[in-house]
Amino acid sequence: MADSWEMLEHACRQCHSCSLSARRTNTVFGDGSRTAEIMFIGEAPGANEDRQGLPFVGKAGQLLDDMLEIIGLDRGMVYITNICKCRPPDNRDPLGVEQETCLPFLRKQTALLRPKIIVCLGRIAAMQLIDPDLKITREHGQWTEKAGVAMTALYHPAALLRDPGKRVDTFLDLKSLQREILARCERTPLRRVGRQQPAPAGGPSQEQA
Ligand code: SF4
Q: Residue 102 Cα, ligand 1 centroid: separation in angstroms?
């Protein structure tokens, strides 16, 4: 596979390796800094992402931006992508075969980025990257280490839109992430932030970021 970000993104845009390519408007390769120390990984694009070609836009994306802001981050300081780069129809979960087919892109992105921290957004990314038996309701916010990379899972922003009751747990998970960034990252200066409370309850649900 490609040796540079540009070649990899080009290969991704041309990819027809699984059936998700048939109905996509755009591939959604990733967004943010290609020298970031922190990588956020969701499951697959939704309708807004497919339309714009960017991960985590729309209401779930706005909530992710709010989550980053709580700990003094913004998109330009992290890298954001998904397991699958094309939208599954009707926002269903990506199938195992679709995830497996697309994973080489994520592996290459990770090899190019060499993050110090990986944050899985939602159960599908967490089960694929941390533990196939992971239960997000029980293990969100817990830390593990693989090949020198600290890894954790947060609730997916779309899940937080559906169930604002999860936001207190996510606030605590974000504070834990903030501590991990301060301990591990050298090139990620966190801004001082005023808001130190969970984001207010959000609007209607959105199935995927
Ligand atoms: S989801 Fe991934 S493997 Fe499938 S067509 Fe899109 S880029 Fe290729």
A: 5
Distance CA 75, CA 181 (A): 15
Instruction: Enter the DSSP assignment of 151.
Output: E
**Calpha distance 116→181 (Å, rounded):** 9
CB of 21 within 6 A of ligand 1: the answer is: yes
83 CB within 6 A, ligand 1: no
CA 83 to mean position of chain CA atoms: 8
Which of 25, 98, 99, 107 best tests ligand 1's pocket when mutated (most atoms within 8 Å of CB)?
Answer: 98
Kindly state the tokens that stand for 176. Answer: 């834990």
Q: Model pTM?
A: 0.93
Q: Going residue by residue through the chain, which has 209 residues, state the pLDDT in tens, using 9 for 90 and above.
A: 678 999 999 999 999 999 999 999 999 999 999 999 999 999 999 999 999 999 999 999 999 999 999 999 999 999 999 999 999 999 899 999 999 999 999 999 999 999 999 999 999 999 999 999 999 999 999 999 999 999 999 999 999 999 999 999 999 999 999 999 999 999 999 987 765 555 544 443 333 44
Instruction: Give all domains of the chain, ordered by start, each with its CATH number.
Output: 28-184 (3.40.470.10)
